[in-house]
């Protein structure tokens, strides 16, 4: 019998042995399964990650409460202009560049006005990082506008950081690169440069949507090492099927606490392409039968990003030795982030 074709689709991996087992055999098997899955698709689903369903539900409640605030409150934490790491509130239309008046954007930052027909990146979001990050500081809304929000956001950030470090270590161990490269790459992931993003994709009247030009979020890769994505029950996220390039697979929502892991640019560069960056997009779902209004959606990406003065370049040891030489260039994290940000804000 010849070798089997690679498993199709986006696989879901139960990583509980990485969270709560000390058995080296079980851990190694899980690491190999994880690396094999993301080698093929640049993405996988994760369950058994140790973040409790109640904690995730609580997080989505905070996100909803945040976006329900009046525009003026959210705008007190407005994302700064220019090339800076993601921090603060970005209202609808902010992250991609279609021209609206201030008034139009304000009125759309709840539900889209029925008569709004211009195309745009149809989402609002709020970015936070570590309060201990020394160069880039968080932008918070007033405490009295949403008491407890800041404390929750920092607590959740660090809970996700712990999980993300476990997964990062597993991915790196599974690549079999030499010890020095491993140590270097882990050391530039200090935990303080990650990002917790709350996202709200509003609903809209079906008749106002021109699907040829309007999406919730167009196809992109993340400029991260990798990203952990949490989403509510509403569909929208699609991940490119690398076995059928140009086609997309829905990141389905029927498992409430499944997260999706997507490799970002730094993961691809450092692994010399062995873990490819996942192209993904978020499409606006159709309105349910009998309804004129498309569903809204909340999601929460947690971006795992190295320190900006860190250096990322391709490694050629272990499993990465078989990859091409010279395809990826070595640069500081800052250079690459600035290059990507130029096209976003
Ligand atoms: O909302 C989602 O499911 C994905 C968001 C995303 O891809 C991003 O913010 O980079
Ligand atoms: Fe993304």
What keywords describe this structure?
30% helix; eight-stranded mixed β-sheet; four-stranded antiparallel β-sheet; 345 residues; alpha+beta; 17% strand; binds 2-oxoglutaric acid; binds fe (ii) ion; globular
- Helicity level, as a percent range? 25-40%
How many strands in all? Answer: 14
Total number of helical segments? 9
**Which topology does CATH recognise?**
Jelly Rolls
Compute the separation of the termini in Å: 53 Å
**Fourth-tier CATH superfamily name:** B-lactam Antibiotic, Isopenicillin N Synthase, Chain
* Unique bound compounds: 2-oxoglutaric acid, fe (ii) ion
Structural class call reads alpha+beta
Give the second-level CATH assignment, the architecture: Sandwich
**What is the CA-based Rg, rounded?**
20 Å
CATH class call: Mainly Beta
> Per the principal axes of the C-alpha atoms, what is the gross shape?
globular
Spell the H/E element sequence.
EHHEHHEHEHHEEEEEEHEEEEH
Low-confidence parts: 97-101, 108-119
Tell me about the largest β-sheet: 8 strands, mixed
**Beta-strand content:** 15-25%
- Domain count: the total is 1
Strand order of the largest sheet: 1-2-10-7-12-5-4-3
**Nearest-integer average pLDDT:** 89
């Amino acid at each position: 019998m010849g070798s089997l074709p690679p498993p199709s689709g986006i696989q879901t991996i139960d990583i509980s042995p990485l969270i709560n087992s000390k058995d080296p055999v079980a851990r190694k098997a899980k690491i190999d399964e994880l690396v094999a899955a993301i080698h093929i698709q640049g993405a996988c689903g994760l369950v058994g990650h140790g973040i409790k369903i109640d904690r995730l539900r609580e997080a989505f409640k905070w996100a909803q409460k945040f976006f329900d605030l009046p525009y003026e409150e959210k705008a007190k934490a407005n994302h700064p202009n220019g090339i800076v790491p993601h921090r603060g509130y970005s209202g609808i239309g902010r992250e991609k560049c279609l021209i609206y008046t201030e008034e139009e954007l304000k009125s759309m930052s709840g539900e889209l006005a029925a008569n709004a027909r211009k195309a745009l990146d149809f989402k609002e979001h709020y970015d936070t990082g570590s309060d201990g990050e020394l160069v880039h500081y968080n932008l918070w809304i007033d405490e009295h506008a949403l008491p407890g929000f800041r404390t929750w956001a920092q607590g959740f950030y660090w809970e996700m950081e712990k999980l993300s470090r476990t997964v990062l270590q597993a991915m790196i161990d599974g690549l079999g690169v030499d010890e020095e490269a491993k140590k270097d790459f882990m050391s530039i992931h200090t935990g303080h440069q990650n990002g917790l993003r709350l996202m709200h994709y509003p609903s809209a009247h079906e008749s106002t949507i021109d699907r040829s030009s309007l999406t919730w979020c167009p196809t992109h890769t993340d400029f991260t090492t990798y990203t952990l994505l949490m989403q509510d029950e509403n569909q929208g996220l699609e991940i490119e099927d690398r076995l059928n390039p140009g086609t997309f697979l829905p990141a389905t929502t029927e498992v409430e606490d499944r997260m999706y892991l997507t490799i970002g640019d730094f993961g691809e560069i450092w692994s010399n392409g062995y873990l490819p960056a996942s192209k993904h997009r978020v499409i606006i779902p159709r309105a349910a039968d009998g309804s004129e209004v498309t569903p809204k959606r909340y999601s929460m990406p947690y971006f795992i990003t190295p320190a900006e003065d860190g250096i990322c370049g391709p490694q050629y040891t272990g499993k990465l030795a078989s990859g091409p030489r010279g395809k990826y260039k070595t640069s500081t994290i800052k250079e690459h982030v600035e290059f990507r940000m130029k096209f976003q804000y």
